[in-house]
């Protein structure tokens, strides 16, 4: 893979289309391969839920023979809204795609949730704070920061996610502007 990072017009990007192998890995073994496919769906079709199989069958005008391989897409089949990329794949990665930041945040949260155990209440005040934090991470992981919700355009950037967290009382304004290091409210 060409790992040379390119910058243009204040946007740093890596043309992932230059190495198709990143889209062909087994997501059941390494979830990061699914993340690359989600990013490609977002960059080329403005929808992170569009999979290769869905694009190919949509072009042929028939439904997929099986549900998408991705775990979070197994519960629903979704027809793509766009069948052809609006821009050439090699050039698409140059544009600013803020949803790809949310896709990476989804990946980081997914990885975190696979190693973090639910806290116990018997740890006193610290246990209660930890349970509150764990509950919030679970809401993000299972409801808000899923590919389906990102494809639904509830949030279009990481800024939208932060604004939502402030509105929900998960963050204080001071946490966002850097004036405080805050805790859970």
TL;DR of this structure?
Helices cover 46% and strands 3% of the residues.
Describe this structure in words.
This protein is mainly α and 185 residues long. The chain has two domains: 1-97, no CATH class; 98-185, no CATH class. The chain has helices spanning 32-45, 52-60, 89-92, 99-115, 124-144, 147-151, 158-167, 173-177; strands spanning 6-8, 11-13. Strand 1 (6-8) and strand 2 (11-13) form a beta hairpin. Helix 1 (32-45) runs antiparallel to helix 4 (99-115) and helix 4 crosses helix 5.
Could you give a short account of the major beta sheet? 2 strands, antiparallel
How would you spell out the order of helices and strands?
EEHHHHHHHH
Write down the overall mean pLDDT.
76
Rg, please?
19 Å
Shape: globular
Strand content: under 5%
Counted up, domains total: 2
- Which percent bin holds the helix content? 40-55%
- Poorly predicted runs: 55-82
Number of helices: 8
* Main sheet strand line-up: 1-2
Total E-strand runs: 2
Taking the alpha carbons of the first and last residues, their distance comes to 45 Å
Structural class: mainly alpha
